[in-house]
Amino acid sequence: MKNIKVVVPLLFAFVLAGCSSPSPYVVKKDSDGTEIITGEFPESLLESEQTFPWFVSGYRGYQPDSSVIDTLRSNAANLHVLIFCGTWCPDTKHELPRFFKVANEAGISDSSITLYGVDRTKHSADGMTDRFGITNVPTFIFTLHDKEIGRIIERADESIEKDLAAMLAKARYLRYAKP
Questions:
Q1: What distance in Å separates the CA atoms of residue 86 and residue 3, rounded to the nearest whole number?
Q2: CA dist 9 to 15, 16, 148, Å?
Q3: 70-80: string of b/e by CB count within 10 Å (b at 16+)?
Q4: DSSP letter, residue 27
Q5: Do 142 and 79 form a contact (C-beta atoms < 8 A)?
Q6: Where are the domains of the chain?
Q7: How confident is the model at residue 53 (pLDDT cuts 50, 70, 90)?
Q8: Are 99 and 87 in contact (CB under 8 A)?
Q9: Which of 23, 51, 88, 107 has its CA 20 to 30 A from that of 11?
Q10: Three-class SS of residue 9?
Q11: Which DSSP string do the residues of 87-134 spell out, in sequence order?
Q12: Is the CB of residue 73 less than 8 Å from the CB of residue 106?
């Protein structure tokens, strides 16, 4: 009887482990040893200084324009961002840490940001890249009240925060413009 008390909980744990959903992302090394994340993944994966030192140093080293951050903060609750990126890509390594610094200072919640990694082909097996017309990374797709207001593709024109503020200003103008 003692053995049953031990075996049943172990069996139950194995069954539960087998029922868990698969991870939405994969982390692998390509032929040159670069860590590549594919699929939807949390920002926390990038916070490893050993694996992604470019993210940590880029985040720490960036100082967003505080006057623009105030504008973004007032729109943060209704803003959503879908980001397609390549952890192997120089433009991603430049812009992604800056975006997250801006997002954190502006109060854009983690739940409003979807981060999606792609491999060097910039295509995804699940069709997400085709669905959103992704040809370059990073691509930041900004939506306000569930309507796309703009994209930043590869590099910001001025800065992440200034480009986003310009999108928000234009969206407000279009929303209130008379036909």
A1: 50
A2: 10, 11, 49
A3: ebbeebeeebb
A4: E
A5: yes
A6: 22-176
A7: very high
A8: no
A9: 23
A10: helix
A11: TT-HHHHHHHHHHHHHHHHHT--GGGEEEEE--TT---TTSHHHHTT-
A12: yes
Q: How far is CA 140 from CA 39, 49, 84, 150, 163, in A?
A: 15, 24, 7, 8, 11
Token pair 């983690």 is found at 110
Tokens of 39: 């699929």
> What's the gap between Cα 152 and its chain centre?
13
The pTM of the full predicted model, rounded to 2 decimals, is: 0.84
**Greatest CA separation for the chain:** 79
Tens digit of each residue's pLDDT (9 = 90 or more) over 97-144: 999 999 999 999 999 999 999 999 998 878 999 999 999 999 999 999
Residue 102 near residue 72 (C-beta atoms within 8 A): yes
DSSP characters for 29-90? Answer: E-TTS-EEEEEE--GGGGG-TTT-HHHHHHHHH----HHHHHHHHTTGGGEEEEEEE-TT-H
CA 42 to chain centre: 7
8 Å CB contact between 119 and 29: no
Q: Is 122 left (phi over 0), alpha (psi -120 to 50) or beta?
A: left
Protein fold of 22-176: Glutaredoxin (3.40.30)
